[in-house]
Amino acid sequence: MKNAGENVLIVDKVERKPLHVQIYEQLKKQILSGKLLPQTKLPSIRELSIELSVSRNTVEYAYQQLYTEGYIYSKPKSGYFVAVLDSDFVAHPANVTSLAIEQVAEGGVTYQYDFHPASLAPDSFPSKIWRSLYIDCLKEQSIQFNVYSNRQGEHSLRREIQLYLERSRGVFCDPAQIVIGSGLQDSLTLIAQLLRDEHTMLAVEEPGYWIPRSVFSNNGFELRTVSVHENGLAVEALKHTGSTVVYVTPSHQFPLGYVMPAENRMNLINWSKMVGGVIIEDDYDSELRYHGKPIPALQGLHPGGNIIYIGTFSKVLSPTLRINYMVLPHRLLRKYNQLFSDYACTVPLLDQRTLARFMEQGYWERHLRKMRNIYKKRYEAIIQAVDRHFGSSAQIVGQGAGLHIVLTLRDTRFTENEIVRRAQEKGIRLLSLADAYLQHRAGYPQFMMGFGGMQPADIERGVAQLYRYCL
Ligand SMILES: Cc1ncc(COP(=O)(O)O)c(C=O)c1O
Known about the structure:
By secondary structure, this protein is of the alpha/beta class. The chain folds into three domains: 19-94, Winged helix-like DNA-binding domain superfamily/Winged helix DNA-binding domain (Arc Repressor Mutant, subunit A), CATH 1.10.10.10; 128-363, Aspartate Aminotransferase, domain 2, CATH 3.40.640; 366-470, Aspartate Aminotransferase, domain 1, CATH 3.90.1150. It is 38% helix and 15% strand.
């Protein structure tokens, strides 16, 4: 397609991405970059379909999506035109400092090579199946649109989660102990409110995930940091904090990736028995283990104990759904029922029912296998690329699972912040490990490098580029 500004659209029929998505993405990019100016008339559906040798439906889908998102508007009998967008959304061509960085609708920045640890494979969501299951649920006679659904979440979903957890994570519970929520922050907010009568401190892993820190401190808890070594949380150090609540990621320590061995798990459980301590076990990505079997959860070692187990659908299915779950020990369940009797479940009923069917009909297990394969290839690509380009100048910590690795650079002349900035200027996003520390940290520069959102070939190119700006 050529029009004002000689903008060209190219569709690649070999690529796996659907053609209408390719057209939609390119047009959106041209609109946001200011290459397609407001009020510019787009070619008619017929013209563009002939020009690109695609069906009219393909172009129509692309235009529909742009129309729905407000990038274009239509005039009766005249066709589609580029909308006037809020100036915050549109990058002025003269202001674009790097070709690799482009403005996106949310006003943020997308990177050519995005190594953010939370980046996931785009286009992997099973939309077709999800849509069909969602419609089936919508047609169900038993859906009542005039009442609030169960506070802890749909029974059918809790039942599926219980079966899945028992089968693959060794978690033992009853569906009555499961509370569906809309993400870690939602579950932790409830937990903080459940615990704050009897506890005043939260011990957290150092380095560790930042969400529990902010949720608990926002709820009046003091934070105590506990160091992490190759066996995970240092339980001896935990004992000296005086805290009676601890947040841990034993199956894949965030961010270092260490797995807590059985002996240290028993030490932690013994600590909990000794001080009446509560363990919050965040099992966020243990499905994604690329070698050997996933490690059973801590909860399964002491199902009657004071362990709150938390899992999520964000990593394997989608963070956009905002669906997670926690398993409460019986003692806290009673308190939960007293405290939150007026609360409603935060996840929409139809999403819960759709997910329950997705699990019941075997799609979840299938999707899990598919995603594990995709991410395994990406994981291998990053390990090989780091080895090929950095060689002995870099060390990788915590291997074999999850969606990111931690890279340590021993021979660089730059600081961690300088490297993050230099990479960013070239369109590469990495996160400094300092973000995972509460206290100041000395030592070699370290980075979290996510590999979930990029194809193996891009990972290879991204690591090669990064090497040039790091040493
Ligand atoms: C350590 C950790 N826990 C939990 C989660 C999942 O959070 P949520 O269920 O809110 O998406 C993440 C997501 O990145 C994480 O890194």
